[in-house]
Design brief:
InterPro entries: Nitroreductase, Nitroreductase-like, Nitroreductase/BluB. The chain has helices spanning about 1-10, 20-30, 50-70, 75-85, 90-95, 110-130, 140-145, 175-180, and strands spanning about 45-50, 100-105, 155-160. By secondary structure, it is an alpha+beta fold.
């Protein structure tokens, strides 16, 4: 089953108005907390946002930084963004029924790596519940952390907008196993 969830999971940025059951969100967070972590530190913390005013403020702060980034992009990066239809607008931050902000506690060794393992677990759990998301890493995590009164010992790693998809997107192709796997030596 896990392989099937991984195969079908894709990034979704547009969500419909149906609100997923809170228990499905809590299931995904419960799954994430079961991830392995360096020295069993479990350095992750999850903040579930449902308040529309907070979601709107997060979007406003994120888009301000994104707009500056996109306007200053040049060369290959600018072409990549244009060719992939990526822009500074982040409607999903206010349109998704839920946002989960995932933090790492920087007091612990390997906190970033461990937290991202938990995020991977969460992505598969969301897929199991037929929920969609995008792993959005804002360019200004400290500003967003201030909005939600996050402790200064926490680093915002990702924002996961979560809901039911309102777009029919195909999963982008993946490299073949033989392109990414070597045995014993490179």
């Amino acid at each position: 089953m896990i392989f099937e969830f991984a195969k079908r999971r894709r990034t979704i940025r547009k969500f419909n108005n149906n609100i997923p059951p809170l228990n499905d969100i809590l299931y995904a967070i419960s799954t994430a907390k079961e991830a392995p972590s360096g020295m069993n530190s479990q350095p992750w913390h999850f903040l579930l946002i449902t308040n529309q005013k907070i979601k709107d403020k997060i979007r406003e702060i994120a888009e301000k930084a994104e707009k500056t980034f996109y306007e200053n992009s040049k060369g290959k990066l600018k072409n990549f963004l244009l060719n992939h239809n990526i822009n500074w607008k982040k409607e999903f931050l206010s349109n998704a029924p839920y946002l989960i902000l995932v933090f790492s506690d920087k007091r612990f060794p390997f906190s970033k790596e461990s937290t991202w393992l938990s995020i991977g677990y969460m992505l598969l759990a969301l897929e199991e519940k037929n929920l969609s998301t995008v792993t959005y890493t804002p360019p200004n995590p400290k500003e967003i952390s201030k909005i939600v009164n996050a402790p200064t010992l926490y680093n915002l790693e990702v924002i996961l907008p979560i809901g039911y998809p309102n777009e029919n997107k195909k999963k982008l192709s993946r490299k073949k196993l033989e392109k990414i796997l070597n045995y014993d030596k490179f």
